TrEMBL record:
InterPro entries: BON_dom, CBS_dom, CBS_dom_sf, Diverse_CBS-Domain, UCP036990_CBS_BON. Keywords: CBS domain. It comes from Amycolatopsis decaplanina DSM 44594. Residues 139-208 form the BON domain. CDD domains: CBS_pair_BON_assoc. Pfam families: BON, CBS. This is CBS domain containing membrane protein. Residues 11-67, 86-146 form the CBS domain.
Length: 231
């Protein structure tokens, strides 16, 4: 059974960062020059201590304008650095995390990119929404072939020719009859795990209703454990 794509497979390894002591104006130049919404703030050991964003800079600029008639306080605002402007703690993701986990983090925290950390919590890359969407840029024919071979034939031990499987714009439709009703949710869950699947339309029937019985594991497949983890 194919595995979910990992963050390290889609992340970008060239990351523009700033130091904690980087001043406001330098950060502004960096973000505007490279058209970035934000950048990780990294210490001398390569660890992410925060993220400074355009929003952080705009909030600072608003405060600055409000204090324009109070020179003493204005000078104090102008002297601020990245470690005073940044949002902390930074929302990060491990390089071995699944793409689906990174998507959830972005949605939960309403961020557009995530610094990627290695096992030592050091910065090794960055991943954005466009990077995560690469997994969905698959041909329908290639995705259909993977459903037939990896899910139906290999994982479920079903002859793929006994089912009708089609894919249109990433939406998988599977029709036909399987042996038991308990197999249907497992098939759907495993199809959803494949990179590039937008949705699954299940049109399956079963010869036998075994919904009241324990699910039997096809020998050596690990299907049931996978179903429990991802259903």
């Amino acid at each position: 059974m194919s595995k979910r794509r990992r963050v390290r497979e889609v992340m970008r390894t060239q990351v523009l960062t700033v130091k904690p002591e980087t001043p406001f104006k330098a950060i502004t130049v960096l973000l505007t020059s490279w058209r970035l919404s934000g950048a990780p703030v990294v210490d001398d050991e390569g660890r992410v201590v925060g993220v400074v964003s355009q929003r952080d800079l705009l909030e600072r600029e608003i405060r600055h304008r409000l204090l324009r008639f109070r020179p003493r306080l204005r000078r104090k605002v102008e002297g601020r650095r990245a470690d005073e402007l940044m949002t902390t703690p930074a929302i990060t993701v491990a390089q071995d995390a699944g793409v689906d986990e990174a998507i959830r983090l972005m949605e939960d925290h309403r961020v557009h990119r995530l610094p990627v950390l290695d096992d030592d919590a050091k910065l090794v890359g960055i991943v954005g929404r466009s990077d995560l969407l690469r997994g969905f840029l698959r041909s329908d024919s290639g995705l259909c072939a993977e459903v037939r071979t990896e899910v139906v034939k290999r994982a479920m031990a079903i002859d793929p020719d006994t089912l009708s499987i089609s894919v249109h714009n990433g939406v998988v439709t599977v029709r036909g009859q399987v042996e038991r009703t308990s197999m249907i949710p497992v098939i759907v869950a495993l199809i959803r795990r494949l990179d590039g699947v937008v949705d699954v339309r299940e049109r399956l029937t079963a010869e036998m209703d075994d919904s009241h019985l324990p699910i039997e594991e096809p020998v050596g497949t690990g299907v049931i454990e996978a179903f429990k983890r991802h259903s």
